[in-house]
Design goal:
Length: 465
């Protein structure tokens, strides 16, 4: 199907999408945020669903388990900035490496020493390590609590059942009570969380060291991190060679789609798709304190511009989703770069310029969203060809991308950034007016100005002040 025709169907209420397709695609963005290799959540879903099947869970229970596994890291962006600040480090590398630590004090201390303030001088590094060590328990609890509570809340906003939210909330609890954030013990811990944490450890160690090490690591943690009964089930299903070969199969995404319980195998409607886009925009925006609420504000301004330009209500609804998800690729950029107060070096700037590409790759996993992915890919292009990542110019940039670009620039200027304070509406419009025809589309800018004037946010003569 032509991508534009697919988008027309989306705008008219026929999404043609399965919930599994949308969630699986977005789970790849969660993998990036958590520093995991692409497909981590999908692989965890494959592992966990086999455990659930052996437990003879009902269809409804398997459905809740399925979405818990894909969305287990839904809150992972919420502590990224805090990790960078506390440990003076790259949040992606920190999170990736921490998943290889078993929680024993010697290994935790070794991890902290090896992953804290690695780019700082010796004196500054030692001070940071000492500070972290002295507050270690409180810091650990704070970071996990933030992540788990935020993830559970977003799952509820996306209209997933409470059992899914609880599975996300309890992800880091341990069978022996030694987990975080509340120290739940044994069967107090949600079943789906018990399965998801074990699947996570199995995938991480399988990916880094192979199936023998993965099975040994899961077995070693029986009675500590993991429910011994679930470990026994894992050992049984892991004895099948096909169980492991699937984890490296290029068709694993489709295989996991096929595991979706029939109770949820149905196209999702526009209302649910709106809620999912809105919920996931919170994942994107909580990555940095400087982008809090950014995607929702860009969506609002996008809708204002589009309405002023006469775009149909149905098409505007689709465009709002595109605006909510336009920055999804920033989940793949470390907060070490996103929150840097000074000038970016060449490598850091190159990482920033990759975020539209990463965003398009995520959204392209949903075939019916061809043009939505294009907006994520092109929202930093400029009419004069000096933008990125492809250097498009003129008519190569579609009107809908131009609308989102203007909304994005306006919000970026009127919000606080690490390197400068927020600007007034008048200041932002004055700066933007200088880029009309080179970076910014004239019709979109005029529509923005008229919308703002209509809302009495700025006086009509402010541009000439």
């Amino acid at each position: 199907m032509n991508p534009m025709m697919a988008d027309v169907e989306l705008a008219n209420g026929n999404t043609g999408l399965r919930l599994a397709e949308v969630v699986s695609a977005l789970s790849h963005a969660l993998d990036m945020t958590d520093g995991q290799p692409a497909g981590h959540s999908v692989r965890c879903c494959w592992i966990g669903m086999h455990i659930g099947r052996d437990l003879s869970l009902s269809e409804a229970e398997m459905s809740d388990l399925y979405y818990t596994l894909l969305l287990k890291d839904l809150g992972c962006s919420s502590n990224a900035a805090r990790i960078c600040k506390l440990f003076v480090t790259n949040d992606h590398a920190f999170k990736r490496n921490f998943k290889l630590v078993d929680g024993s004090l010697p290994r935790v201390m070794s991890f902290i020493a090896a992953n804290t303030a690695v780019k700082s001088g010796l004196a500054a590094r030692l001070r940071t390590i000492l500070d972290v060590a002295m507050r270690g328990g409180a810091i650990d609890r704070e970071l996990i609590e933030t992540r788990c509570e935020r993830g559970a809340d977003i799952a509820r906003r996306m209209r997933f059942p409470e059992a899914v939210a609880q599975g996300i909330l309890d992800l880091d609890e341990h069978w022996d009570g030694g987990g975080q954030p509340t120290g739940r013990i044994g069967r107090e811990i949600a079943l789906y969380a018990r399965i998801a944490l074990m699947a996570q450890v199995a995938d991480v160690f399988h990916h880094t060291s192979g199936q023998v090490v993965a099975r040994a690591e899961v077995t070693r943690r029986a009675g500590g991190w993991f429910d011994p009964e679930l470990v026994a089930i894992f050992d049984r299903v892991a004895a099948e060679p096909a169980f492991w070969s699937a984890l490296t199969d290029p068709d694993l995404d489709q295989m996991v789609y096929d595991l979706e319980p029939p109770i949820r195998v149905q196209p999702i409607d526009d209302d649910l798709l709106d809620d999912i886009a809105d919920g996931f925009s919170q994942v994107i925006d909580t990555k940095s304190p400087f982008t809090s609420g950014h995607s929702k504000r860009v969506a609002l301004v996008t809708d204002m511009i589009a309405e002023e330009l006469g775009v149909s209500k149905a098409r505007r609804r689709w465009l709002v989703r595109a605006a909510l998800l336009h920055d999804v690729g920033k989940l793949g950029v470390s907060n070490e770069i996103l929150d840097k107060p000074g000038k970016l070096d060449a490598d850091e700037w190159a990482a920033i310029k990759r975020h539209p590409v990463m965003g398009a790759e995520i959204l392209s996993r949903m075939q019916a969203f061809g043009s939505l992915a294009a907006i994520a890919h092109e929202h930093h292009e400029k009419l004069d060809g000096t933008g990125y990542p492809r250097g498009l110019s003129g008519d190569e940039i579609g009107l809908e991308t131009r609308i989102v670009t203007v909304a994005d620039i306006f919000d970026a200027l009127t919000a606080e950034r690490p390197y400068r304070p927020a600007m007034s509406t008048g200041q932002a419009l004055s700066i933007m007016s200088a880029s009309v025809g080179t970076a910014i589309d004239a019709d979109c800018f005029d529509a923005l100005t008229r919308s703002i004037e209509r809302l009495n946010l700025i006086q009509p003569d402010a541009l000439s002040a």
